[in-house]
User: Fold these one by one.
Assistant:
Number 1:
Amino acid sequence: DGEAVYLDRALDRPARPGDSHKGQFGGVRVLAGAEGMGGAGLLAARAALAAGAGKVYWHTSPEQAKSALIAQPELMSTELTADYVPDGSIHVLGPGLGQGDTAGALYRRLLLDDHDARGVLDADGLTWLARFPKPVHNWVLTPHPGEAARLLGRSTKDIQSDRCQAAMELSERYQTTVILKGAGSLIAHQGRLYFNHPGDPAMATPGMGDTLAGLIAGLMAQGLGAEEAAKTGAWWHAKLGAQLAQRYRIVLATDLIEAIRLR
Amino acid sequence: DGEAVYLDRALDRPARPGDSHKGQFGGVRVLAGAEGMGGAGLLAARAALAAGAGKVYWHTSPEQAKSALIAQPELMSTELTADYVPDGSIHVLGPGLGQGDTAGALYRRLLLDDHDARGVLDADGLTWLARFPKPVHNWVLTPHPGEAARLLGRSTKDIQSDRCQAAMELSERYQTTVILKGAGSLIAHQGRLYFNHPGDPAMATPGMGDTLAGLIAGLMAQGLGAEEAAKTGAWWHAKLGAQLAQRYRIVLATDLIEAIRLR
Amino acid sequence: DGEAVYLDRALDRPARPGDSHKGQFGGVRVLAGAEGMGGAGLLAARAALAAGAGKVYWHTSPEQAKSALIAQPELMSTELTADYVPDGSIHVLGPGLGQGDTAGALYRRLLLDDHDARGVLDADGLTWLARFPKPVHNWVLTPHPGEAARLLGRSTKDIQSDRCQAAMELSERYQTTVILKGAGSLIAHQGRLYFNHPGDPAMATPGMGDTLAGLIAGLMAQGLGAEEAAKTGAWWHAKLGAQLAQRYRIVLATDLIEAIRLR
Amino acid sequence: DGEAVYLDRALDRPARPGDSHKGQFGGVRVLAGAEGMGGAGLLAARAALAAGAGKVYWHTSPEQAKSALIAQPELMSTELTADYVPDGSIHVLGPGLGQGDTAGALYRRLLLDDHDARGVLDADGLTWLARFPKPVHNWVLTPHPGEAARLLGRSTKDIQSDRCQAAMELSERYQTTVILKGAGSLIAHQGRLYFNHPGDPAMATPGMGDTLAGLIAGLMAQGLGAEEAAKTGAWWHAKLGAQLAQRYRIVLATDLIEAIRLR
């Protein structure tokens, strides 16, 4: 049961009517400040900006925040603290988050206490979800096979032996949209299953997942629902990466972020 | 009453005679050091440099100043302090300024005490003006509709229902040149009203206003009067943004800054 | 005795099968934190990333680590400490390493104590090897003539008078793959000798050796053996540099790093 | 008396024989660490690197040094201290030097005590020379008209009224090569006078002088004498700037640095 559809055309990215102003394009907050992993948060924040979010905040350590000034002065930054209270922004929780106390407090606040907080849960965020599982219908999950295995309490090999089944089961168990990453990623949502554009092995490089998480969050900030944002983000991520792979043997996340903004 | 003119051609940017030296092209000082908002000041300073100002200082926190070295080594930086005494430079007061004590002291010094200080008042600078209103004939005001509403004590909806009237009223009340931003910005000065180039919705992104403020300041530093600088800056900002929008779905402020320098 | 072969064609860089993920492409760790020489480590790390390594860590001082966030957010960083225990990663030991206590402790740990640690030994790493010589069959050595002289206890002039002999002797004495740098570098391994692509004098610039070390490490991380990685890395380094020299009178290391990723 | 020659053709930049290595191309040391003026030293160091110097050190504050890692990882940095003892490097003394105690100590060491120290004296370095004048035959002087006036104890207007005379007099009084900057710069050396390429008014921007100083130092490091380096550096600086001015209304120092390396 469940339908399976190939995403074989460009899904429309959010339109911009003639009288737009940035206040209409929502806000993204990337919560990420673990030492030595600052690049992950910065890549996610830059991807959200490139996707067209009206405002992008990077919550991080004061030390890391300074780098945003140079790498992307259009970003705003603020200190990552355990007492952050979610607003209407779309959150990216996971890339560069770590497993420390502040990370745990943020996971509890956003996922367990606040029933309206929304966003993308990736990387360390998925580790927290595996430790404290619950339905997370406001959050897009973007596990790679190892993370999927932890979320389902099975082995990675098991996940890979039937990826369709695993994606569907993740979506059902966590009652939300799931992108199961890997060569040929799958999107599952309420019994529907989508096969993404295959991308290219040149994209098997560090930071690509952080970029996908930020891109999807940027689309959600502009009003796309979780399912639509996941499909659109995953498709463009793979499609643009494959285009870049015609030029580069090794496609880096920063290449992809530049490409997101192109017509 | 009042004439309304479409700015439908390229206004001339300041000429550079054959025997120019940078001392002839004036100085710009961007006063901005609020934590987490450093990008705003940096974008304004870079835009002033790209516009052709002979010398551009960024007054900011020592921490933020270091980023200028890398992002744009042609800038100079100095610590933002409450006891700054204005010189003949053109000031940008607002982007990344904040609402703290130093900001307030600078507003008082430049706007209330010193009748010769000149520049562009934007963002937080306009908030200070709304709190302590006065005629500011030496300063170009660049409010978006929400800031305009605060400056006139009315609602944003009210401003947007008759933008021409609002721009004219702002210019009259504050006795200076006003750019009312939004899709199709308006420039008002002494009973004259100009409709700017429409730009493009791809420009509805963070930092675009900071870039406009710096660009206008850079033009004033080269000798253009407030009205001429506002018209010229607003027109090129919108025109270049629309050109970039043919290439980019999302135009960022850093793209625009690069484009300012092109022939 | 010993055969001599001209590397006169493009050696294949590691293939990427269609179902690749970054976990298959190994890890590189650049151990380098000497004050004022941070660029060397950063260049090596960036080259390893460009070569296609799945994960690249820069072990350095916390101060230097911050720069990675901006220069290359795809890198991860961690503090360089004397108690680092080697894992299965490919190491770059030398560029920006220095001659301090931490450097000495790392040399002892990786070269003297741990018989499985592998990587590339360059620059300061070769100075340590000259002080505490031993067979290092897991490590590619990349000396320039001066370093080769120290490693053989002879004069630089002597090395240059018979470079083939010197390369073979180094390889035999240290029982490993050796690249003897200089105009027309030589690769020696188990009695075999290879003449590299000649490169171009435009490449005689700072940081080129660090880039070569990182490139070779990146290839080893993807599964190439020491001999194959040395040949492939040295050939592409010289070939790409010579291509860039058609455009640039002075080819910089950062140019070369960008070129490594091109198809 | 004295001959006057138009530099109307491309002067040859130093050749690079086929068997070059970076050790043959000399070293440059930029001594510059004044707070808020770090960009000047960084631009000079980058220009020296682009000119082809084999090794470029930036002596500066530890805070500023970190920026080199990101802006140009091929540079090396070390702390600027008053007890620096000159080696055989070519020095850039002036851009971003300041008028503090360390600056004064360095001026005394390099200019008054050490009769072999060589390099380029610019900006603040020329202020020190005006305060403590002496023949400086090892140093190229690069004053703008205001600095020339101070060095000759006359008015700027006076200098500009007969620039040829001023350049010759400066060269004679200080017994060295002098570039008198301004629209149409002049090079004077031992009674010979050269009219430089006119450049373009688009080059009247901050940092251009720092770039010229670094470029000349880079040429001296590669073996050109003071007169030849001054002529070659000034000519290429103006010529490349004029070429860039066909593309840019405002040419920035960073543009020029990139262009220096092109064939």
Note: Chain C has a mean pLDDT of 94.
Number 2:
Amino acid sequence: MSIAPETSVHPALRIAVIGAGYWGPNLARNFAMSTDWELVAICDRDLDRASALARKTGEPAVVASVEELLREHTIDAVAIATPARTHHGIAMAAIAAGKHVLVEKPLADNSIHGREMVEAARAAGTILMADHTYCYTPAVLKIRDLLASGELGEILYIDSVRINLGLVQPDVDVFWDLAPHDLSILDFILPGGLKPVAVSAQGADPLNSGKSCVGYLSLPLENGALAHIHVNWLSPTKIRQMVIGGSRKTLVWDDLNPQQRLSVFDRGVDLGRQEAVRDDVEDRKGAMISYRLGDTWSPALSEFEPLGLMVSEYAASIRAGRPAPTDGESALRVLSVLEAASRSLAEGRATRDEVNHPILEEAL
Amino acid sequence: MSIAPETSVHPALRIAVIGAGYWGPNLARNFAMSTDWELVAICDRDLDRASALARKTGEPAVVASVEELLREHTIDAVAIATPARTHHGIAMAAIAAGKHVLVEKPLADNSIHGREMVEAARAAGTILMADHTYCYTPAVLKIRDLLASGELGEILYIDSVRINLGLVQPDVDVFWDLAPHDLSILDFILPGGLKPVAVSAQGADPLNSGKSCVGYLSLPLENGALAHIHVNWLSPTKIRQMVIGGSRKTLVWDDLNPQQRLSVFDRGVDLGRQEAVRDDVEDRKGAMISYRLGDTWSPALSEFEPLGLMVSEYAASIRAGRPAPTDGESALRVLSVLEAASRSLAEGRATRDEVNHPILEEAL
Amino acid sequence: MSIAPETSVHPALRIAVIGAGYWGPNLARNFAMSTDWELVAICDRDLDRASALARKTGEPAVVASVEELLREHTIDAVAIATPARTHHGIAMAAIAAGKHVLVEKPLADNSIHGREMVEAARAAGTILMADHTYCYTPAVLKIRDLLASGELGEILYIDSVRINLGLVQPDVDVFWDLAPHDLSILDFILPGGLKPVAVSAQGADPLNSGKSCVGYLSLPLENGALAHIHVNWLSPTKIRQMVIGGSRKTLVWDDLNPQQRLSVFDRGVDLGRQEAVRDDVEDRKGAMISYRLGDTWSPALSEFEPLGLMVSEYAASIRAGRPAPTDGESALRVLSVLEAASRSLAEGRATRDEVNHPILEEAL
Amino acid sequence: MSIAPETSVHPALRIAVIGAGYWGPNLARNFAMSTDWELVAICDRDLDRASALARKTGEPAVVASVEELLREHTIDAVAIATPARTHHGIAMAAIAAGKHVLVEKPLADNSIHGREMVEAARAAGTILMADHTYCYTPAVLKIRDLLASGELGEILYIDSVRINLGLVQPDVDVFWDLAPHDLSILDFILPGGLKPVAVSAQGADPLNSGKSCVGYLSLPLENGALAHIHVNWLSPTKIRQMVIGGSRKTLVWDDLNPQQRLSVFDRGVDLGRQEAVRDDVEDRKGAMISYRLGDTWSPALSEFEPLGLMVSEYAASIRAGRPAPTDGESALRVLSVLEAASRSLAEGRATRDEVNHPILEEAL
């Protein structure tokens, strides 16, 4: 699959944005600008808010309820940017009405709801897509290409760090706040998606805020590889870095370095094949190891607005009748890992009062 | 305790260095240069190697065995730089002969041996010291001072990263190779030493080398704090960084940035006291949180050779009859955490063939 | 003088923005948001452009000419954001009508025009202010404070680098495009303003574009200090860095490092006083020199929109009847240095065909 | 010419090192280790110093004077590491005796002396080589290769910065202390050597130390290119960076970044050809400009000791009877530019008391 912005030759699809709060305006603006789409309506219980947004996005209709929207407007698709606990209800109604559905992350408030949405959309033959915006950035698209092309070889380890002085939030812990970014990216770039064989979380709440503010997530993958995510709300320095170690090359993504966001290192450790039978294990081990100290390469990245590409991909998926690049199943995998992480934390807490401890979780 | 190099007014103490291999020459050179010490003998089964070293360090005597050394030479102390599995035997013999003992890390090949050494030295009234060289660097001494002074407030989390393209070694995994540095530093800087309430390790051997090449170590501390260590032999970039988050300030130690090795950030999240009783939990939580965005300060560090200070501290501890700054108990704590980490890895492997998984370990 | 945003208790001053092209909208938006100001009119020959801007800024009147504006609208002040060659005519008309004038940089197309504007405003008792936006950023304000307080001691040298892959422009060379930023900042932060004793420019046009794309500007200051500016359109890496070396401390401003924009180094070279008469010159020189290797300090910076502060300062200057922080004379000094730089380049070119060479210029 | 360390199959050449002070030991050690050379003698008026050095380098003969050396020892070549003012006398005597000569930088105390040395060696048919050590580092060799291969296209500009908190020296100013490194590197990497069409220096002595502590050197090259060097003893931060802008690519050498010392940017500004005749100059100019925003590439560098390669190249040049890579003429060009810079500074001072000002100098 090639992901690229392109001009549409099709008639525009008709979309309504549901939710005019924090994220809805970004969606509405991008749908309004896209030649793939015609923004037909803004839906929000707060009609003032909906009207204010409508004025900035070409004056689509304003409606106060999803029922009204589905009943009175001819639309092909909806984009849901409401609180997570309402996603399931709205999406199920829209799917039942035969609409395609784009949902802001997380897909739903729990994976049971999420799975129902995925199955309903499949049964109805409509597209269910998750707005994993990061996946449509130039850097992540390039990483996905590099992994797909085999440039890095086999994946050995992935280490992701996403830390900064963050808002300690009332509803969610640091895992649910920050790790969805890392998890949705991993699911997007790994050929076959993110399918850890286990999930283990370590968290700390040293401020006694009632939720983890520092978190580590270990995700053993198949073939002995290990993905690890560090999320932290208490760090005075901001880091957004992912290292993807491969058997051929290693990629470093430093998202806060605009001058060299991606670096591909042709450096690594090679273990040779055990061609010769040797008596002395120590020598053999030593003999098998070699180092590559080759060039580093930093690919140029094009610049475009990720949300613009995302709405364009939504249209392309609908027209082609194929799953979206970040489809419902992808979002469901992310949700399941987050739930497994929470169970890992909670059962640790259950068995040992003072500290969170890791447990092995059957994931997914 | 103040740690500083000083000129001795005492008669020099008499030392022998045992082991003339990789590390012994560094020790011998520093003992030879020190006014606190008189280097009396070099002991190594390989007499050629011992003689070569003796020629560079003022021509001390050369002896082939510990027995001969203890029998025929008048010494106050020994410094042991032999393979780890021999530490216990040599140290016990030296202690039995009433000598003070400095041991290269690790203290011993297992904690039972290590504990015997600690107890024997205590019973004999001799000093048992570990050569945790990193603890005598200007940066670590400054960090210890800052923590002791309360400058950072209460410790909330510690995140240490020590990764590079490393030698995949025949004998030890990445935990035993690299983590002793982080652990001995933590033990040195934390008031009261490193006393985790649990130890959990995640490792990966994606090259099928027979041992972990990528490792994560979680060490929940008392009061909800969490220490975490990332060690990695497969990283094309070299990082040596430790972040110590405190309730007042946060310290970042970037050992590869000679221009600003230490940074103390007066930035952080504060949770206020629940002075007012509020009905709405969400609001109350929100109201309690505030951010400090103050100055950053990078203290100047003096420059000196860590090993020079270490041998000087060894002499000072002997003369004062007080435990060394990195004494046997400290080294035993480090050893115990490493053993707990290995058990964590092994039991995971036992219960699940393909991946290492974390387990909760009673530590120490 | 303390520069700080504050809420106004005065009736709003009435302003018109002249020019609705590239920069005018930024000015109009900030005047519209300010409680100090009432945006009365947008003036542009292109009425469509003016109307479009008016719709976004609270629907002020739209007028097509400065004459109409001055004749038909009651205003206190104007803000001019038209091409540089028109600044003089518009400003002189506005001053003649008793209006205060804010001018986008450069003040005028030449210093004769600029001087007329300064003198006319002085005679009329109106405020003439230059929109040197950079001077109202948190970093530059902090630098100005540090220099004013004597924190750095006496200024020894200033080295400013402003390079990136820039637009090779049809009208101006790299000096006129980029150096105004550095020069207006220098004028703002140096106590007494920028008063070089000479101006010397070196430029290169290796692409044969007809104008310098790489430029160096040397500005010897009083007391033996030297300011130097490097501007470059052809650099693949982007650097915005200014080093201000003082006799007590040295400040480094790295504008592209949001995590540590300012660093104050308590490091430097000290030459002692020649208290003792010594025969041996070499020893004496050696003896007089010492080094400070003290702490580094990075002050926290507040965050606000520079243009918001600038329009607020414009109002405050008018109300207090005092010169603006970046007044007409400041802008005239900047203009004069740029003209001297051009003469330095041109006379070099005149006497030597192939290369630009430096000449000494009587400045200002 | 390919520069690479190789094992010699020739009989070793016989060398004497003259001068056992600061730099001589480095030379003696490398000659002693080389299979190309036999270190025959150490020559120093201070026989104790010479003897101490001889003990560490295989016990060559020790002699007190050059006359004695040339009279009593069979040697092929000498290496001179004595104070600059003695280079001429020693070298002329050695050349007269038919010896090859390696001279520590600077070649001589003035260019008249230097020229005599070059001409004497040419007449005698002996090799005169300058120890421009930096030119034998992996980074500089790679840069030279890249320029020779045309990878960067035509050189547009070179900007070199070499600043740190330096020792204010009794004998030399910052130009003579630091710029020889930059100049010898430029001479080495530029195809055809360093041949500026003018030399202009700006210096500042804000500490009143009697010599420039901050210096800028402008070196217009042929074809409109410009080289510029910034040297500074008063900078609290250490920078060693050279940018070489080419018409095809731009190279950045950051010598203090061991993880990415060289970066080659496929980024730049292109001015197209004026294929179409256009009326509107402004549009035409605009149309002609385009930007390349391609990949960045960081070549791997091998690791070896530069001095080891240098002594090996000395031997290879002698055996092949070809000029050394850093031959006497190269050193003479460097010396001439330094002298021109000093004249530029001095004449400025003569005509204007307070400040150094730039003058155009006929160079070389």
Note: Chain A touches chain D at residues 260, 263, 266-267, 293-300 (CB under 8 Å).
